[in-house]
Structures are given as C-alpha cells and as structure tokens.
Amino acid sequence: MRAFLDKKFLLIIILITSCNQTADKSSNIIDNEEKIIEAVFETPIILEDEFKQENTLDDWSEFILLEYNILVLANSITGYLENDFNYLSETLNTLSNYSNNISNSEFQLYQERPEIKGRLKLLNIQIQKTNFNIKDWDKDKGLEELNKILKFYNYSINTIKSILNDDLMN
Q1: Which of 38, 45, 49, 72 has its CA 20 to 30 A from that of 26?
Q2: Is residue 2 part of a domain?
Q3: Is the pLDDT of residue 22 over 60?
Q4: Which of the four pLDDT bands, split at 50, 70 and 90, describes residue 84?
C-alpha cells in the first residue's frame, strides 16, 4: 500500500506543478512588425495658386518642386507603413535633392528673409536625417520622423504666408 501511495503522491505533485505554471510572457508580446500602426500625421499646407501668382512664388521653381515632393511623401506614408523603408527611398532621395537645391536658390524672398531661409534649412536637416536613418528605425520612429518633415514644411509655409501677408498690409 505504501508503494501505491508513493506513486500516487508523486503523480499528484507532478500534476499540481504542471498545472500551476503561468503562461509564457513571450507568447503574449506582440512583435513590433505585426503591430498595427495608425497613420496619423500632419497634412501638408498647400498655397493657393492665386496666392502664388500674386506673390510670384510660382516663379520659384525650387520651392514648387519641394512642395510637389512633400505631397508625394505625404501620399506615400501609408504605403511605407504597409511595406518597409524601401518604399520611400526614392521619394526621400528626390525630396532630399530638392531640399538641397532650395538652399542654393537665388529667389529674392528667400535671399532677403532670414526667417524663411532658417525654416527651410531646418526642413532640409530633417529631410536629410530621415533619409539617412529611416532604414534603422522601426515603423513608429519612422512615422514620427516623417511627421516632423511635414511639420517643418508647414512651419515654413506658415512663415512664408505670414511674411507675405504682412508685406501686403504695409
């Protein structure tokens, strides 16, 4: 009888310890790649054609190309979240080139107003930083940095609008 109880006792101990285990925490962790990221980002401000014509901004070719490529970037963000950084590489390279070109612009407004020049240089720095590092970031960080590009662009546009509206008032 004693041998029977020893075997049952051993069986009970095995059952209790195996049933008392908690679930493996690593099985409950969602991998960053599988996590759904909501594409929340700034909407780029677009200057009206009439405003551009009144202020001769439509003659500023570097700015027009930058504006167009910012819109391309904004329309590509959802594709980036569904794919990988390669989806944006050509767009960021093109945007980077146009952002560099604007710093060499001879456009009068750009040359005469340091606040516009400063805003566009900050935009250029953010574009270069994002273009260089996006391959190393996860999607959350990539979206955050892409959103900064759009914010810096909007700051630049608001600065341009403010300066040109003040000039019209005076």
Answers
A1: 38
A2: no
A3: no
A4: confident
> Strands (DSSP E) along 93-160, which ranges?
none
User: What was the pLDDT predicted at 28?
Assistant: 47
Please report whether residue 147 resides in a domain. Answer: yes
CA-wise closest residue to 126 among 46, 55, 42:
42
Domains identified in the chain, total number: 1
CATH number at residue 99: 1.20.120
CA 18 to chain centre: 47
Whether 75 is in a domain gets the answer yes
20, with CB counted inside 10 A (0-12, 13-18, 19+), is: exposed
Q: What is the pTM assigned to this prediction?
A: 0.77
Burial class (CB in 10 A: 0-12, 13-18, 19+), 146: buried
- Flag whether 66 is in a domain: yes
Cβ burial of 10 (10 Å; 0-12, 13-18, 19+) is exposed
Task: Report the pLDDT value the prediction gives residue 69, as an integer from 0 to 100.
Answer: 96
Predicted pLDDT at 27: 45
- Binned at pLDDT 50, 70 and 90, residue 99 comes out as very high
For 85, the domain range is 48-169
* CB count in 10 Å sphere of residue 153: 27
